Amino acid sequence: MSSIATTLDRGVDDALIRRIEAAISDAGVARSAVQSEWPECHRKGCQNRHPSVDSAFTTMKIQVMQAVRSELKYETTTRPDIAETGDSREQTAVYTLATLLNRYNVHDAGTFVNAAQLIIDAYPALADVLGESA
């Protein structure tokens, strides 16, 4: 009974557990990162040094830990860069701007000015707001 009370006192609820599980499920490891650590020789009495399976699993565990940390700190798995119902004006503005910056980045637009022009074209009210702060 005391362990259940301790768990509830620490704020662990079903929503948090779902976030952690989603982050673990979303974690990925590049094959190339693990492939060099995976032993391939199974000959009896082989004298060559081969990589360790433990090292490969450590690489995988580190990726899972980083995914969980990113989720808990920044909601990178469960909260994509889009505004949601109930967000404040500032949150909506941040998520909208983040989406626009992703969509109209310099790589696609060619220059910072072209990217900025596309963002202003998408949201003309930004010109008034940014013009006032200058």
Report on the structure:
The chain has 134 residues and is mainly alpha-helical. It has helices at residues 2-9, 14-26, 31-35, 53-74, 89-103, 106-109, 112-122, 125-133. Helix 2 packs across helix 4.
Radius of gyration: 24 Å
Order of helices and strands: HHHHHHHH
**Percent strand:** under 5%
Low-confidence stretches: 1-8
Count helical runs: 8
User: How many strand segments?
Assistant: 0
Distance between the termini: 60 Å
Helix content: 55-70%
Mean pLDDT rating: 82
Largest sheet: none
Task: Please provide a brief summary of the model.
The chain has 134 residues and is mainly alpha-helical. Helix content is 65%, strand content 0%. The longest helix has 22 residues, at 53-74.
List the helices and strands and how they pair.
Layout: H1 2-9, H2 14-26, H3 31-35, H4 53-74, H5 89-103, H6 106-109, H7 112-122, H8 125-133
Helix pairs in contact: 2-4
List keywords for this structure.
65% helix; 8 helices; mainly alpha; disordered N terminus; 134 residues
